[in-house]
Write a sequence for this structure.
């Protein structure tokens, strides 16, 4: 049985993870779709807490086990320099603590995993994240005192 949704249109939730290693290098995954790098990410499933979703997505895309510890940003995708999409999206970015696991060589969506220093980022998938956003997210994650960035 399928139920039609009525009422106001609401945004989809896109979650992202900021995972840093002991040298403060950031975890990135290479997207199969465009061959470029981005933060581990995905959609929040209905009935799933955003923190559970980000932990699941990091495991699926990178092979690493993480625990969401802090919200770093909540952005309206349309307020940032991304190409347009057919629906409205809010991006939630979580600071995640690295617990363990082993890097995957490939997943259904990714074909590479790596930790990169903030001054040596690979070519990013700019439709997903910008270098300026990554720099700001790393600063927020390391500082630990700044409140979440939001639109």
């Amino acid at each position: 049985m399928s139920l039609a949704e009525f009422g106001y249109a609401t945004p989809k939730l896109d979650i992202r993870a900021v995972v840093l290693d002991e040298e403060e290098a950031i975890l990135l995954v290479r997207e199969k779709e465009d061959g470029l790098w981005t933060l581990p990410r995905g959609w929040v499933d209905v009935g799933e807490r955003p923190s559970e979703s980000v932990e699941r997505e990091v495991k699926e895309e990178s092979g690493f086990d993480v625990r969401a510890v802090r919200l770093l940003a909540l952005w309206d995708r349309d307020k940032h320099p991304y190409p347009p999409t057919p629906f409205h999206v809010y991006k939630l970015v979580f600071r995640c603590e690295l617990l363990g696991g082993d890097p995957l060589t490939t997943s259904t969506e990714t074909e590479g995993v790596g930790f990169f220093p903030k001054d040596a980022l690979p070519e990013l998938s700019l439709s997903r994240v910008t270098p300026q956003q990554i720099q700001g997210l790393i600063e927020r994650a390391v500082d630990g005192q700044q409140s979440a960035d939001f639109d």
Q: What stands out?
A: Residues 12-150 form a domain with the Nucleoside Triphosphate Pyrophosphohydrolase fold (CATH 3.90.79.10). The chain has one domain: 12-150.
